[in-house]
Task: inverse folding
């Protein structure tokens, strides 16, 4: 599965994207964020406040309870601001 990181999430993790093989027990966005945080200090820093992380599966915004089965790509980004 391809993970894509944007803005300060990308900066803190240190890469813009990566391909990962998820463990079988990671089935939702929330579980994905928890699993990613366990992968190292840079992930822990980027995902310290998981509720603030916005997520898109196959380019559609989703909630953290969304199941990730069948996802080709998952994008993680900080809250959007604008004016």
Result:
């Amino acid at each position: 599965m391809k993970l894509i990181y944007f803005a300060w999430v990308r900066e803190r993790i240190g890469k813009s994207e990566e391909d990962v093989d998820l463990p079988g027990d990671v089935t939702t966005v929330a579980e994905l964020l928890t699993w990613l945080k366990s992968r190292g200090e840079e992930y822990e820093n980027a995902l310290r406040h998981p509720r603030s992380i916005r997520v898109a599966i196959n380019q559609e915004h989703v909630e953290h309870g969304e199941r990730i089965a069948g996802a080709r790509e998952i994008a993680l980004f900080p809250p959007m601001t604008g004016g």
